[in-house]
Write a structure and sequence with these properties.
The chain is an alpha/beta fold and 340 residues long. The chain contains 12 helices and 10 strands. An 8-stranded parallel sheet has the order 8-7-6-3-2-1-10-9. Strands 4-5 form a two-stranded antiparallel sheet.
Length: 340
């Protein structure tokens, strides 16, 4: 596939004020969420849950792409129709998570390095043949006493850049996801400093690895105080400092930014994205969109409860959250939309 095709796919993922639905939870993570709701933790239940999501009527109105997991991209509907066909028929672009998880980083207590480069070239070829047109790799950066270290940031940035280069070789758009975690007591200002350092390091590595920036999507965290920080900032303050950080570190060549939700409450994630677009949309070099998992899925999961009788109501909740985030992309979201 030519570079231009990759660029066109990246642009199409931001068309129509749409965003991405991340449904790439690993099997252990999916099982943990099921366990909290008393849902059976087995392959068939995971398949049924994913079928419920992908067959939501009208999902393609606000979702441009879905990020799948290895098990998911191989699964089928109960009637035998491959999930990939359902996704394509809905006008949605299939994507795939390709890292193999964040592991303890040798010599760096409390820090993680994401693994999965071994054999990645061949896996990307297979996923492309299966129908995936973009991929995702997540790096995890924690803030704490004397962390993150420069070594951890640089190592994760290098791995992200190598992954992105391999994606472009395979004809896939690469989602570059550096997540500065919300866990901890750190202030919003500390998150700003670390997030800017992480983003600068990543783009330095992307340049060094000759990655075409027009063919990537950045999936960063919003700049937030830690969950246990005594001072929790306003929606507008979060919007202002997040955009300031991005303007400092993200080149204009990047075709779009799709935020991760990172455990934010659904409504708050939508409100913060909305505030950024209300205040800055006309002045930014790239669109600001969403690539949410829990912040779109959670209400539907709580309604579904693993029971087929609840599918329609669960799908309505999923559709609602997706439409709320599409409204936030336009700068038209408001709390009144949450009144059912």
């Amino acid at each position: 596939m030519s570079t231009q095709n990759i660029i066109d796919i990246a642009k199409s993922l931001f068309a129509g004020n749409k965003g991405l639905l991340a449904m790439d939870e690993s099997n252990p993570t999916c099982n943990k969420r099921f366990a909290k709701s008393g849902i059976p933790q087995d392959e068939e239940t995971r398949r049924a849950y994913r079928e419920m999501i992908l067959t939501t009527p009208g999902l393609g109105e606000s979702i441009s792409g879905v990020i799948l997991y290895d098990e998911t991209i191989r699964q089928k509907m109960k009637d035998g129709t491959p999930f990939i066909k359902i996704i394509n028929d809905a006008g949605i672009i299939p994507g795939i998570k390709v890292d193999t998880g964040a592991k303890d980083m040798a010599g760096h207590p409390g820090e993680k390095i994401t693994e999965g480069l071994d054999g990645l070239r061949d896996r990307l070829k297979e996923y492309y043949q299966m129908g995936a047109r973009f991929a995702k790799w997540r790096a995890v950066i924690a803030i704490g006493n004397d962390i993150p270290s420069h070594g951890c940031i640089e190592a994760n940035a290098h791995v992200l850049a190598r992954y992105a280069a391999l994606c472009q070789e395979a004809g896939l758009v690469s989602i570059v996801e550096p997540e500065v975690l919300m866990d901890g007591e750190h202030t919003m200002e500390q998150c700003f400093e670390i997030t800017e350092e992480v983003l600068r390091s990543i783009f330095n590595q992307l340049y060094a690895q000759r990655v075409v920036l027009e063919g990537i999507i950045l999936k960063p965290n919003m700049v937030l105080p830690g969950l246990t920080c005594p001072k929790q900032e306003s929606v507008d303050d979060v919007a202002d400092i997040t955009v300031e950080c991005l303007l400092h570190a993200v080149p204009a060549a990047v075709p779009g930014i799709a935020f991760l939700s990172g455990g934010q409450p659904c409504e708050l994630a939508s409100a913060r994205l909305n505030a950024m677009n209300v205040r800055f949309k006309s002045r930014l070099p790239w669109p600001l969109a969403f690539s949410f998992a829990r912040a779109i899925q959670q209400p539907a999961l709580e309604i579904w409860q693993g029971k087929e009788i609840n599918v329609t109501k669960a799908q309505q909740a999923l559709y609602h959250r997706a439409k709320c985030n599409q409204a936030a992309r336009r700068g038209e979201y408001n709390a009144g939309m949450e009144i059912n």
